[in-house]
Write a structure and sequence with these properties.
This protein has 334 residues and is of the alpha+beta class. It has 3 domains: 2-54; 66-196, Beta-Lactamase; 202-328, PAS domain (Beta-Lactamase, 2-Layer Sandwich). It has helices at 2-13, 15-54, 66-85, 89-95, 141-149, 202-219, 223-228, 276-283; strands at residues 107-111, 116-119, 159-164, 171-182, 188-196, 235-236, 239-240, 242-245, 250-252, 289-297, 304-316, 319-328. Helix 1 packs across helix 2.
């Protein structure tokens, strides 16, 4: 109040001086605001660059969905902690379970023999060997993870299986990513986390199709039974890897388990009358792989939806054949 009173007296005594002081004060306030904003911008830029720098070796360009990217970052962050601090970081993870258990995913750590060391969502699994654990489709998730981590074509160790949510009693489809870590103590572990009811990324089918094509290249005809095996990595949810010749003869059917069921694949049309297989094979004359989009009926609604067909070219005894799979076309956020 005294400052106000003194200012009022000054204005009465010398109006020119008072106005000059106000102008200086206004300039000072503006300068302070500019300095404060500039400082905030600098710190914000440093924070953003620091976050981006942490992920400079993590390629997320293959993913269309933010949930998928967030999960990979989440697991990668944990792998960096484990790599830096080693086994003593387990105490940190156990004391901060809530930080590693979100409504969308949770963290877990295993050794390479399938023994669970840490589980943010299901602590009762810690110390148990889950090497031979099977899901409802007889898939063995832990053994699938070990295989995925050895697959250079699968850089983030993706596997697809059924699991259950903590506190729930029914199975849910799950896609999980993993990173292998060697601790300072020389212990080899893997860190993982998974999404329940995941979006179908195009990257998921690229991995299994490219792996199947490589297997055929290495093993020839004997690879076909491995790819068609229902417990293999090549079949999950609505995805099934299939194989056919350049004439359209099916070696593994995309529809039936019996490849003897005949139909002319190259003449098959989508809901608009287009022939996606015929078109894809024309493009594969000059490419090793191709994506083709077509329209199909939605099984839940009476509408048409876009599907993605991915095909890769390979060979059996010098015969050109094609390996493929179909998934939903990624949808932009609503």
């Amino acid at each position: 109040m005294r400052i106000v009173a003194d200012t009022y007296k000054a204005s009465r005594a010398d109006p020119f001086t008072f106005n000059f002081s106000l102008r200086n004060m206004s300039k000072l306030i503006r300068s302070c605001r500019i300095i404060a904003f500039s400082t905030f911008s600098i710190f914000l830029s440093m924070f953003i660059l620091g976050c981006e720098g942490k992920y400079e070796n993590l390629d997320l360009s293959a993913y269309q969905y933010r949930d998928t990217k967030d999960l990979v970052k989440f697991v990668y962050d944990a792998s960096l902690i484990l790599k830096k601090d080693g086994l003593k970081s387990l105490e940190y993870f156990r004391n901060n379970r809530k930080l590693h258990y979100t409504p969308d995913y949770y963290l877990y750590i295993y050794d390479m023999n399938g023994v669970n060391i840490y589980h943010a969502g299901m602590p009762h699994l810690e110390g148990k060997n889950l090497w031979n654990l099977t899901d409802k489709n007889d898939k063995k998730p832990i053994q699938m993870v070990i295989a995925a981590l050895a697959d250079k074509n699968n850089p983030h160790g993706w596997v697809h299986y059924s699991w259950w949510e903590p506190g729930k009693f029914y199975p849910v489809p799950k896609s999980s990513c993993h990173f292998k870590v060697t601790t300072p103590e020389g212990k080899t572990l893997f860190v993982g986390g998974g999404l329940n009811y995941p979006h179908e990324e195009k990257e998921f089918i690229r991995i299994v199709v490219d792996d199947a094509a490589q297997l055929i290249k290495e093993k020839g005809d004997s690879a076909l039974s491995l790819i068609a095996d229902p417990v293999s990595q090549y079949i999950f949810r609505d995805v099934k890897v299939f194989v056919f010749t350049s004439a359209g003869k099916l070696l593994i059917s995309p529809v039936m388990n019996d490849s003897l069921t005949e139909f002319k694949l190259l003449d098959c049309v989508d809901e608009m009358g287009h022939k996606p297989f015929e078109k894809a094979l024309k493009e594969l004359k000059n490419k090793d792989s191709v994506w083709e989009i077509f329209l199909a009926k939605n099984r839940y609604q009476r509408i048409l939806v876009k599907k993605s067909l991915y095909l890769r070219k390979t060979y059996i005894a010098d015969q050109e054949i094609y390996v493929g799979a179909i998934t939903d076309l990624p949808q932009p956020p609503g």
